[in-house]
């Protein structure tokens, strides 16, 4: 059976949900990552930056924009060094200004993806998969790109069936 690794970033605190700022006690992407693990098995790796982002939504979007512009690679609390045990690597994150938070790229650039299948997942408030597919093509050198999944953050609680359906279809082959 294929072995899955879910690399994800998710932030708690204020976020933009259906046109309003709302406090999230658990991040949307974390919920999606757990749906996949529950349905398909595999390991979760949470990307956590040393520097924390503001819990205030408007502050956080400023911080994230500055990092994107600077092509920052924020330091992480811990790193995955080796993914040789896995067949499928799912890279899940929130859409931040059209792509993954920069900390996800810090991690991806350190790994050897030769021969692995990679699948983008993005939670978002309207941008869909946005730049996640192209980011994986660029940063997961040697990987085979698989079909991705976009989940609207506001709908995450009612999206388990959709996530499981996607996971069974793309990860079982
Ligand atoms: C810094 C920041 C930037 C964002 N940029 C976008 C964006 O460009 N497009 C979009 O659809 N949603 C954007 N959002 C909304 C998030 O992608 C969405 O709420 C996501 O589900 C949050 O996931 P999380 O709770 O796992 O962190 C942004 C949110 C933040 C905090």
Written description of the protein model:
Strand 6, helix 4 and strand 7 (144-145) form a beta-alpha-beta unit. This protein starts with a strand and ends with a helix. It is globular. It has 173 residues and is an alpha/beta fold. The chain has a single domain (4-171), classed as Flavodoxin domain (Rossmann fold, 3-Layer(aba) Sandwich), CATH 3.40.50. The protein has helices at 28-40, 57-69, 102-108, 132-139, 160-171; strands at 4-8, 13-17, 20-24, 43-46, 88-94, 117-124, 144-145, 149-152. It contains five helices and eight strands. Strands 1, 4, 5, 6, 7 and 8 form a six-stranded parallel sheet that branches. A two-stranded antiparallel sheet has the order 2-3. Flavin mononucleotide (FMN) binds at residues 10-11, 15-16, 24, 27-30, 57, 60-61, 64, 94-98, 123-127, 153.
